Inverse folding.
């Protein structure tokens, strides 16, 4: 006998099938293989068995509903929770098991994926996050966690075995320059549940927010030099600072469709990256933003007779304006209103805003006089470039 009892889903989740529906399904199923069967005779043994079976089916149905409801970090049992963690790349114990930082060397551009396994000959360790072989021929230090809980020493240079398979012809080596860290107490189910809930709140892959977060996490990348521009046919990724291969990996792991990554029309701004992931190779460009040299001549005055802090105002004001120029995000304009505010805030300890009677700026960009766009206080920037000023590029004069 084969009878399918459907799952009834409502806005509140699965609803248990009623006892009447279960009885009807049972009786109809038996009748299909037993012609003349009836369970409607009161007081009969057949009716008694049917009623008992309906009670058992009701318990099984409630168990099915409870199992479906448990497929959530809030209610999952330990076994289901562990499966959810694996799907998120968060195996239990990554916060408590023994751990070690390793460096993997090999061909430049070789992607080392999360879950890559290395060993010290006795125990195995899994990388919790991936990496890439950078221009130096090695990855940065990658965090690896023991796959089982226990206490044992992990001396430096003891993790030297690659366990995960690599493509034919590719040679990778691994070592740990420092000793590993002993485990803490085994991770509780409650702590593991909280980590899975937190992991499910992160920004999804394929979004600009995810890409910017990954780029800003690359060592050496300056946050103000990160921008993702919408251009014809896709996105132009601008990123200044950091290793090119590491930047490429951040793009590779954040973008669902690499064909949407577009190059700059100015070839000199493009940085080409080639990454090898398994047996597949991917080549694409990102934009290294050029620097735009800025000078600013500040002229200010006060109505205070015999003012004695002019030198202090000049010094503080120049630093404030320089800091403002060097904080502008790539592609964004110089805003004279914001520059005025930076000057006034910087000199507030020497002179009150109400005592500054005039304030003006003469700006040059790459040696050419720059003026605001008509009707605005914004001096535009090249969309792929960033502003920079040395201390000597900013002068301040009371006049």
């Amino acid at each position: 006998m084969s009878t399918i009892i459907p799952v009834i889903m409502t806005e509140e989740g699965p609803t248990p099938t009623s006892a009447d529906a279960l009885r009807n399904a049972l009786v109809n199923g038996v009748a299909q293989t037993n012609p003349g069967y009836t369970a409607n005779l009161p007081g009969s043994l057949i009716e008694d068995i049917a009623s008992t079976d309906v009670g058992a089916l009701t318990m099984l149905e409630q168990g099915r509903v409870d199992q479906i409801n448990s497929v959530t970090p809030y209610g999952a049992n330990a076994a289901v929770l562990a499966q959810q963690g694996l799907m998120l790349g968060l195996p239990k114990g990554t916060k408590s098991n023994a751990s070690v930082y390793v460096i993997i060397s090999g061909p430049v551009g070789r992607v080392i994926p999360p879950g890559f396994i290395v060993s010290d000959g006795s125990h195995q360790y899994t990388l919790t996050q991936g990496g890439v072989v950078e221009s130096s021929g090695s990855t940065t230090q990658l965090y690896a966690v023991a796959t089982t809980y226990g206490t044992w020493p992990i001396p430096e240079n003891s993790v030297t075995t690659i366990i995960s398979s690599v493509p034919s012809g590719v040679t990778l080596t691994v070592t740990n320059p420092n000793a590993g860290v002993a485990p803490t107490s085994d991770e509780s189910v409650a702590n593991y549940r909280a980590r899975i809930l937190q992991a499910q709140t992160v920004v999804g892959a394929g979004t600009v927010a995810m890409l910017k977060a990954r780029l800003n996490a690359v060592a050496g990348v300056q946050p103000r030099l990160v921008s993702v521009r919408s251009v014809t046919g896709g996105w132009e990724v601008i990123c200044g600072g950091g290793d090119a291969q590491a930047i490429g990996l951040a793009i590779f792991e954040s973008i669902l469709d690499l064909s949407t990554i577009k190059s700059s029309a100015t070839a000199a701004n493009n940085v080409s990256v080639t990454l090898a992931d398994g047996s597949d190779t991917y080549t694409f460009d990102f934009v290294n933003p050029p620097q735009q040299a800025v000078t600013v001549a500040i002229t200010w005055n006060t109505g205070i007779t015999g003012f004695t802090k002019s030198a202090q105002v000049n010094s503080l004001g120049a630093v404030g304006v320089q800091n403002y120029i060097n904080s502008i995000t790539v592609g964004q304009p110089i805003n004279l209103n914001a520059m005025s505010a930076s000057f006034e805030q910087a000199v507030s300890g020497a002179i009150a805003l109400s005592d500054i009677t005039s304030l003006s700026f003469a700006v040059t960009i790459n040696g050419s006089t720059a003026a605001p766009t008509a009707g605005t206080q914004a001096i535009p920037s090249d969309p792929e470039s960033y502003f920079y000023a040395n201390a000597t590029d900013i002068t301040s004069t009371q006049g």
The radius of gyration is 33 Å. The chain has a mean pLDDT of 87. The chain has eight helices and 21 strands. The first helix runs from residue 19 to 33.
